[in-house]
Structures are given as structure tokens and as C-alpha cells.
Amino acid sequence: MLGQFTGLLGIGAILSTAYIFSTNRSRVSFQYLVRAFILQIAFCLFVLKTSVGKVTFEYCASGVSALQDFAGAGAEFVFGRLADPSGPWQFVFAIKVAALIIFFSALMSLLFHLGIIQVVVSGIACVIRPLLGTSGSETLCAVANSVLGQTEAPLLIKNYIASMTDSQVMLVMVSGMATVSGSILAVYATLGVSVPHLLTASVMSIPASILISKILMPETVESDGQVDHVAKATTTNVIDAISTGTTDGLGLALNVLAMLIAFMSLIAMANFLMAKLTGLLIGTPYTFEKLLGYMFSVVARLIGIPGSESLLAGNALGQKVIINELVGYTSLVKAGLSERSVIIMTYALCGFANFLSIGIQVGGIGSLVPSKRQLLTKLGLRAMLGGTLANLLNAAVVSLFI
């Protein structure tokens, strides 16, 4: 009961933090936010407490897994054994990620040429706009991010991004930060993380990212529906569509890989300098993630983690923000926390919100729509905050029901 009460405090603190950092508090629509919060709880109960919910989302995840297998077939043809994770080279990140982005870009270009993407966007607009007040395109991206990656999901709406408002771009970024891809979920599962809870966290992040995003950057422009217009394909035929998508995907993949190399290298250098500096000043070297671990121990308490386990949980959260969630999950499974704390932390870590993702989104989405690159760099840190708050909100909500 005490842990559940703490979760309520955590929910209040998370929403208050988002409100404090809001760009325009007077424009926050509390009516829509309440609806998003209710939808988040409903998703939690549906997936966590019903067999129908679990089966439904597992079926969606299996479909994404099939797409990844198709991309793997192309990668294996080109790279041979380098694309086989069971081989001596194991998982080669650049090959797997590049193959998936290129294949998915070609597929989305084909579906857009056939008019299928436009129908989906219009359908979601009709359902979601009255409920949460968001456009069909930004909502489709938020939904897609729950099973696709933060670079693949924007491909679904790449023809709509240029006409999006700042608030709508913010939701695209936050939903990418607050979710993880289906392929990465499989990696977490191999570490021993609970698959049902990973799936639940993924679907709960849809309304959570909308809620937090629209607090941090509420809409200030009256929507005229332009972002949901039925965009027309510019490709002449199916072959042209596939070729165009493939070329766009190649550029996207190269941008993503380049950003990863640059940001990971800079973070390693920053950690080295921080350790040297703290070693000289206080005699004990501290990296950025260790310092954040102490800070996040307070956050861990607020989402329902007992005080005796808060420092270990805070370390995992700090590693997730500075490096990535895979490192955070690796620490989690080795930390020896109680079952309840492990479940809560599964939700808190289940998102791409870290410094590397800023580079990935700027490189990925920016290559799709160069006119938005400056906006993406401006919103990067705020989007990372939004994704982190959305994940923590999921954890706090779940702590009320376990």
C-alpha cells in the first residue's frame, strides 16, 4: 500500500515537472490531458490484466518481427555471414540497422504510392482527433513508434512532416524517445526481462508520450487540418516508388550511423574528463552516469522503489539516460532487486530517451525533411526530457496495480 501511495506522489511530481518546463502553460488543454491519462490507464489494465490484450499486442509484435526477418534476408544476401548474429561476429549493429531502415523505407514508399498510408492517416485522424485533439499523422507516428524504431516510424509520415507545427514535431520526437522498437524488445528478452511487461510498456507509451508532449509544448496554432490532408504520391509507378524509397533509406541509414558514432564518442570523452576532474577535486572519480545515479535514486523512490533499492535502481536509470536503455537493463537484471521493483523498473527503462537518440533523430528525421533540422536540434533536449517523463509515468502508473 505504501508503494502504491508513493506511485501517486510520483505521478504528481512527473506531471508537475512537465508543466514547469512547458513552453506555454496557458495553452495546455487539461481536458485532452485527462483523456490521455485515462487512456494510458486503460491500456495498462487491458494489456496487463486481460489475455485478449496480451495476445493482440504479441500478434502485432510478431508482424514486425517478420518484417525484420525480410530485411535480414536482404542483408544476408549482400553481407553474407556478417549479417548472421549467430556467427563469430555476432550482432553487427550497423548492418542490421542499415538493412532494416533501407527495406522499411522502400516498403513505406511503395505503400504511399499505392495510397495505403494516406488511408491509415485519415482513419486515425477521424478517431483520435476528437478524443485527444491530435492530428492523424502525428498520432500515427506515436502509435507506430510503439513497435517500430524512432527512425523507421517517421517514414510512415515523411510526406506530412514538412507541414507539421512545432508541437506536432515535438510529439513525433517524444514518442520516439518514449518507446522502443520490436527488434530491441527481443534483445531485452534475451537478457531475462519480462516480455509481457515490455509489451505493456510499449503500448502504454502511446498515450503517455502524447500527454507529456502536449504539456511540454502545447499547440499554439489553430489546426486547419492541413497536416492530415491526403498527400499525393510523386512517384510514377511501383518500381519508381521502391527505388525512391531505397535511396531515401540509404541516406537515412548513413545519417543515423554517423550520428551514433559521433555522439557515442563524445559521451565517452565527456565521461573520461568528468572522471579525471572529480578525481582531482574530491579524490574519487565519477562518471556522468554514476552522478546521475545518485540523482535518479530520488526519482526511483517516487515511482515506488523502496529506499533500500533506490540507489541500484537510480544507477540503472542514469546509465539509460547517458548511454542507452540496453545498458540500463543489463544492470537491472544483475542488481538483485525485488520482483516488484524489477517490474516497475522494466517500465521506467523501456524507452530510447538518451543523448544518443537526439543525434539519431536529428540525423534521421532531419534527412527526411531538411527544413526541420534546425527545429529538431532546438527540441532535442526537451524531447529527451519528455521521453524520460513518459517512461517514468508508465512506471508510476503500473506501481498502482502490482
Explain the overall architecture:
There is one protein chain. The protein is built from 16 helices and no strands. By secondary structure, the protein is an all-alpha fold. It has one domain. Helix 1 runs antiparallel to helix 16, helix 5 crosses helix 6 and helix 7 packs across helix 16.
Q: Concise description?
A:
The protein is mostly helical. 73% of the residues lie in helices and 0% in strands. It has one domain.
Topology summary:
Blueprint: H1 2-20, H2 30-49, H3 51-79, H4 93-113, H5 116-132, H6 136-144, H7 166-178, H8 182-190, H9 195-216, H10 238-282, H11 288-302, H12 310-322, H13 325-334, H14 339-349, H15 355-368, H16 373-398
Helix pairs in contact: 1-9, 1-16, 2-3, 2-9, 3-4, 3-9, 4-10, 5-6, 6-7, 7-9, 7-16, 9-16, 10-15, 11-12, 12-13, 12-14, 13-14, 14-16, 15-16
